[in-house]
Design brief:
six-stranded mixed β-sheet; Dna Ligase, domain 1; alpha+beta; globular
């Protein structure tokens, strides 16, 4: 079972000064704010969210209006650490492409290998990603997952900020003396501006061509796509939404109908099982060959590249960061950085019998994850299951590890709080994780997700909180 230690009633400013962060959802802090103002915000926020098009897969986004507050110095310090990790991740992609022993470490299936080797002439290959992390008692970020496939939330970011700026709670916090800082991702059109700038640098942005916001007709994801399209258009870049299967490649140009395309944003999901169409490309290459040809010949700017989608997104990447294979390619400072911010992670198939026994006997310290999966579908948190369930999960993973990889990771416990949400009579325990958006390897802004489940995924009974940076 998860444990929670109640906090003493301490002033909001005192805790923020001491820790550099504070979650105002926590009961003892929420009680210091005006309850009637919070209720007004709760009643008015759904209309604000809907009016700004903030929806998750055509449903209202679950949202609670009390913010997670962070000092600007903490925000910049953590962002700087993650930017250094991003450099190492790019280096790991190069090692995969050039070193057979590294490819053997990952043991990716042939269909992924083919896609990764289509390559990209521009850098970074990880144009857009989200680093999911928590903060430990020493104030260190602990990165437990990299989302480089199609991370959600960047185009929502500025609109969440708009909602919160109109909240009465925001006024109250300013009256307490908190001075808000506008983060890069809160600025209008930040995501589209960054992509257009990077494409222009790579000589892949023509005024006569469109940006294509792609998903698949077999596994359609609508989350954010209209907002992303709107951002591009607002920045002067023509944009369309379409299925990747409906593209054609003629005389060196990618088209949807009669519209030439030079920028592609890919919104695909990974599922598991016999009917899985990972990124729409493992089902069959025939229907997506036009896109593959455009990427392979360097005629489009892809966000993200296949290399970034199938290597950093793969949880085996975190195990590789701890692998002796990487050690000759990083300096002493980078070596210490990884140990500071990345929880110890191992491939399950690399464990010897004694190490496997240790894993089975120490479930409370560990997490089991399928290497290529999303939305927390395969995550087993050892302390949240009993001994029998944990051992069964480990044995089931071992049985299939020749076909698909799993990792064992040191538990980086997400933050917990007790909170009474509007409409509830009794407080409940909630878990909060943070996600830092990185664009071109630069830290841009943090998304806050809280849930009654420790996986803290909005798709799994979670909700979004506002994020507020203050001087």
């Amino acid at each position: 079972m998860n444990t929670y230690t109640p906090l003493k009633k301490t002033s909001i400013l005192e805790v923020l000064k001491k820790n550099g962060r504070i979650n105002l959802l926590e009961q003892c802090f929420a009680d210091q704010l005006d309850a009637s103002a919070r209720l007004v915000d709760h009643q008015e926020n759904p209309a604000r969210l809907s009016g700004l098009g903030l929806r998750h897969e055509d449903k209202a986004i679950p949202y609670q209006g009390l913010p997670y507050v962070m000092s600007n110095s903490t925000f910049l310090r953590i962002g700087g650490l993650l930017e250094r990790v991003a450099v190492i991740v790019e280096r790991a992609i190069d090692l995969y492409l050039n070193d057979a022993s590294v490819r053997d470490f990952f043991k990716l299936q042939a269909r992924y290998e083919h896609l990764i080797r289509l390559g990209a002439a521009y850098r970074p290959r990880v144009q857009y990603c989200r680093y999911d992390f928590t903060i430990d008692d020493a104030g260190r970020p602990r990165i437990y997952e990299l989302n480089t496939h199609s991370p959600a939330g960047s185009s929502f970011y500025e609109r969440f900020a708009q909602v919160f700026r109109h909240n009465l709670v925001m006024e109250e916090l300013q009256q307490l003396g908190l001075d808000p800082v506008v983060t890069p991702l809160e600025k209008q059109g930040a995501f589209a501006k960054a992509v257009i700038e990077a494409a222009s640098t790579a000589n892949l942005n023509q005024p006569t061509h469109s940006a294509a916001i792609l998903n698949s007709k077999y596994l359609t994801m609508n989350n954010e796509l209209d907002l992303i399209k709107e951002q591009f258009i607002a920045e002067g870049k023509p944009a369309i939404r379409c299925y990747v299967e409906d593209l054609r490649f003629e005389e060196g140009t990618l088209y949807f109908e009669d519209k030439p395309i030079d920028i592609c944003f890919n919104k695909f999901d990974d599922t598991h099982g016999p009917d899985a169409y990972e990124c729409a490309f493992s089902r069959t290459h025939a229907e997506v060959q036009a896109y593959l040809d455009a990427v392979g010949t360097g005629k489009v700017f892809a966000v993200n590249t296949f290399a970034s989608m199938y290597l950093p997104e793969n949880k085996s990447m975190l195990a590789f960061l701890w692998s002796p294979l990487l050690r000759p390619h990083i300096n002493a400072e980078e070596y210490e950085l990884i140990r500071e911010v990345v929880p110890y992670t191992r491939l399950l198939r690399h464990l010897n019998p004694n190490e496997l026994k240790h894993v089975i006997s120490n479930r409370r310290e560990l997490v089991l994850k399928r290497s290529l999966d999303t939305r927390g579908r395969s995550v087993v948190i050892g302390r949240d299951v009993d001994d029998k369930e944990w051992e069964q999960a480990i044995h089931q993973a071992v049985e299939v590890q020749e076909e698909e990889d799993f990792v064992i990771q040191e538990l980086s416990a997400v933050e917990t709080c007790m909170a009474t949400l509007p409409g509830m009579q009794e407080p409940g325990q909630y878990f909060t994780s943070l996600a830092y958006f990185m664009i071109h390897g630069k830290a841009q802004g943090i998304l806050v997700r809280t849930s009654a489940e420790a996986t803290t995924n909005v798709a799994r009974e979670g909700f979004v909180q506002p994020f507020l940076v203050v001087r």
